[in-house]
Amino acid sequence: MTYEPVIGLEVHVQLGTKSKLFCACSTEFGLEPNLNTCPVCLGWPGSLPVLNERALQLAIKVGTALHCEISERLKFDRKNYFYPDLPKAYQISQYDQPVNKGGFLEIEFKNQKGEVVYKKIGITRAHLEEDAGKLLHEGIKDGSLVDYNRAGVPLLEIVSEPDLRSPDEAYAYLIALKAILQYLEAGDCNMEKGELRCDANVSVRKSGETKFGTKAEIKNLNSFRAVQKAIQYEIERQIDLLENHGRVVQETRLWNENKGQTFLMRSKEEAHDYRYFPEPDLVPFTISRQTVEAVRKTLPELPGERAKRFIKNYGLSDYDAFVLVQEKKLADYYERCLAQKISPKLASNWIQSELLALLNSKKISIDESPVKPADLAGLVALIENNTISGKIAKDVLPAMFETGKSAKALVQEKGLIQVTDTKLIEEAAGKVIQANPKSAADFRAGKMQALGFLVGQVMKETQGKANPKLVNEILRKKLQT
Amino acid sequence: MNAFLRFNPEYDLSSQPGVSPLFGVPVSVKDNICIQGKETTCASKILKGHVPPYDATVIERLKSKGATIFGQCNMDEFAFGSSSETSAFGPVRNPWDLDRVPGGSSGGSAAAVSADMTLAALGSDTGGSIRQPAAFCGVVGLKPTYGRVSRFGLIAFGSSFDQIGPITKTVEDAAILMNILAGHDSKDSTSAPMPVPDYTKALRRDVRGLRIGLPEEYFIEGIDPEVEKNVRAAAEILKRLGAEVKSVKLPHTAYSVAVYYIVAVAEASSNLGRFDGVEYGLRIPEKPLREMYFETRDQGFGREAKRRILLGTFVLSSGYYEAYYLKGQKVRTLIRDDFNKAFKEVDVILTPTAPTAAFKIGEKLNDPLAMYLSDIFTIPVNLAGIPAISIPCGFTSSGLPVGLQLMAKPFDEETLFRTAYAFEQETEFYKKNPKLDGEK
Q1: Model confidence, pTM
Q2: Which of A24, A47, A4 is nearest to A204 (CA)?
């Protein structure tokens, strides 16, 4: 029996506003507990909310980029439940009239055959709501403490249709969503700071079945990889149940990263009745079409469009373009390199292979790279005009990284300029042939591998500075005569 | 009388004679309006010791005009009641008869003004809580249009109903206070960004040509004949002064109390969720968390508060929401439409403020339905969000004050002041004071 997984994601994104959703408190992260609070976000008796206009604009911006219909009426609702991190015992959210509904997000991923495929994932809704505070348990005897700095921070909850069919698709969805949010400058989406949170709804059904199976909601997913792993685990758990005459129960489960398993958090019967009703403290108002149009006009080039432009204008492959655009800062870096007249493909290769590897190993983000775009472009230019070989360049880049010097300066300093002087190479080739008569004989006898060895020896003789292409040609000529 | 919960013995030193319009004027406030640095409890055990860190907008405005915030007035717990008996700090008594209630929930405010213990007071009105006690205590009470006065700093009961308003001895005092209280507040999204007229200019003692409507639905069985007699006589007086009096229809009136006790308690149940022992007020330290919630709320809230929280929670519950809350909101729209239609024909609607004069302490405390019905004539005004004023219009044979209610179109407080002033100056009921101890 084969099964098809059905997955929907609920993503909470912190909108990048300076102040909270309903008061003027700062949204700055990492401050002393309860510093960013006032009577409004603490829910003190008598306080009232006033909507942050910037948050609404950002919500509309995201909705527009996700091809959503923007509601004509802005209405908030109260979601009532008791928990110490929720100061008013209700969260101001949007229930039946979300600001954005009915859009889609195009994702790109590799299918099982390894081909790059595109798919549109439906967006059910994306609504505004306020965040709760945070409970602190560690190191506290007899109880917990609450930090309300986060209470009232604006969130956009983006709910997908159950259109995802594999953990890889879910991963691709998150990557694509994060990219769009960053392009819109709608939020920083740093998962470690809780600026992006994701819950997954997972069910399985027999292949060919059109009805959905019973779903489980998975929470506590702290990274995109965790989302992928938890969904994979959950699919297997559910199939295992069905295969062994069991049945899947609707429930909420928690992902345990260390154990690599999901565990029951609460059953359907224990689910809250949130008693939603319209928030009387915020009068509904009309979102004018002019406002929506004004926001639409501010939309920047989005990752999908940018990738298409990279493919068309720079001749990049689908995959290379995709990797570059998914992080806005990386794509910006790339385009800044192209301010100099260098090969776009070569620049792309050097960024994606060498530079990213260096950055990753040092855990530095692209915008903090000690090698600036102009410097990287300088390095690529030196390779292109045969001043240095690619091999030498691989040594030059880490040195640039360490010292912050330009490629040109380092190449001159260390005398790394590529030897294109045929006389010098001929001398070295002659020496090598003399010193390795057996290899020379092998080559002449038709053993082509021997040439590789001899080329290597010539490179060694010239401290790697010889142009490998020239070495090859000269060796062949000498050996064949 | 137990009208005050606390006094403030200091007066504001920044207040200056000749400069501050309310210099030296002691204004008292209902104990659900936040005063920075002063305990504010809503007459509830659950907020005992609670000290707000900020001033309500109305307090800021009063202080800016030099008023002395004098007393903090007793009230029904969280404004849940029509008799000021549900206070956790003991019932308020009516200065006209100490065995009777002063009305509620702003009973302390009305009693204090009536007994000349303060020059003026603020109340809050969700279903009649300013007007009904004003009627029972023989003083003036105005419930402004919803959105006319900022609610910032008013501890919420029914957020879509609540309005702060003045309780005073005379109509002129109410107009003077409204000049200060009314106006847009950027801290309250439900406050109206509309200009505030000079209400004292409306005090013209001229009602000629004014169209006054008497709704049939307000002169029903169960109304005290003495109340009806005084109110009908009041209509005759206004007619004699040149107003045109006619009958109007408000056909959905009968549903008002039912709708109110669905929608207002729904909002109340949510508004009172925050009193959970976590941040402020009472906490019964129990472990685990659920027990802390249960014990704190069980010991902190009185019976009527619990009743309304339960009712409100029920009508919002999954499976009941459509049948109660949603239906209630639809009927609320019908009631609002009734008024819209009526105000095409008349400028003012005249009714009794309450079906009876002040009742005995304890008389209705254990009969919630009878208690709720004492707001039957005031509730529709809150459902519609329109302004209304209660002014004295006579006395029963046993000497208890009777109140006359005047209603007007949204933001037409001026017409209320004009009508009320003309009637008051003609009749001078306000000159009669309750006889207090030693005066007998």
Answers
A1: 0.90
A2: A4
